[in-house]
Design goal:
- By secondary structure, this protein is α+β, with helices and mostly antiparallel strands.
- It has helices at residues 2-15, 48-69, 76-98, 142-145, 185-206, and strands spanning 40-45, 102-107, 111-116, 123-127, 131-140, 149-153, 157-161, 165-172, 177-181.
- The strands form 2 sheets. Strands 5-8-9-7-6 form a 5-stranded mixed beta sheet.
- Helix 2 (48-69) packs antiparallel against helix 3.
- The chain is elongated.
- The model is unreliable at 1-32 (pLDDT under 50).
Length: 207
């Protein structure tokens, strides 16, 4: 009996110890907060643009060949116009294609930045303070925007389109819309929405 009493007292004392509380179960009705990266980066590439760039380079080469190998005594003005036309058209095609071979997108705490091509031009920078919403577009096509590149449609807003496929759509506070084709656009939407929630919370706290 004495040994049983001692065991009962010890078990009672152990039961009174402070054990760390179990973590509360997640409420399925409330979305879990997923930590987002401090800086999100993404890109999209269109290798078809290299074929168009090759055509532009061929136009430039043709203009140079005309200038070097042609007999200028047969007529200066027509030949000069041909040379200038070939070189100008080739340079325009080269810039218009190489600038949109790929697009790079970066999202940080303050803004979204879009850089096109190898030299980063054209470039678009949008402050997250001006953004009211972000949406995922499962399929963006050049046909919707009238071609590749930096596009504008009065009923659709502006866009950077380098290939057909998924994209990111930003709705701005002034009613404008900006679309950009980028890989893993759903992740970009999650990051931007998370930033917008944080900005909204900060503004509410200041008010």
């Amino acid at each position: 009996m004495a040994s049983l009493s001692v065991l009962w007292i010890l078990s009672s004392l152990l039961g009174m110890r402070d054990f760390p509380p179990e973590p509360p179960a997640h409420d399925p009705g409330v979305p879990a907060l997923v930590p987002q990266p401090a800086i999100w980066t993404g890109r999209a590439t269109n290798r078809v643009q290299w074929l168009l760039a090759a055509a532009g380079a061929a136009c430039v080469a043709l203009g140079i060949e005309l200038a070097v190998d042609s007999n200028w005594t047969s007529g200066v003005a027509p030949l000069l116009m041909s040379v200038i036309g070939c070189v100008t058209a080739g340079l325009l095609v080269l810039y218009g294609t190489l600038a949109f071979v790929h697009v790079a997108v970066k999202v940080d705490d303050d803004c979204l930045e879009v850089r096109c091509g190898h030299i980063g031009l054209p470039r678009r920078r949008i402050s997250l303070d001006d953004v009211v919403g972000a949406d995922f577009a499962p399929r963006v096509t050049p046909r919707q925007w009238g071609g590749w590149g930096y596009r504008w449609r009065p009923e659709k807003g502006t866009a950077v389109v380098v290939r057909r496929g998924e994209g990111l759509v930003l709705r701005l506070g002034d009613g404008r819309v900006f679309t950009v084709t980028v890989d893993d656009a759903e992740a970009a939407v999650r990051v931007i929405r998370d930033r917008l929630r944080l900005l909204g919370t900060a503004k509410h706290a200041e008010a």
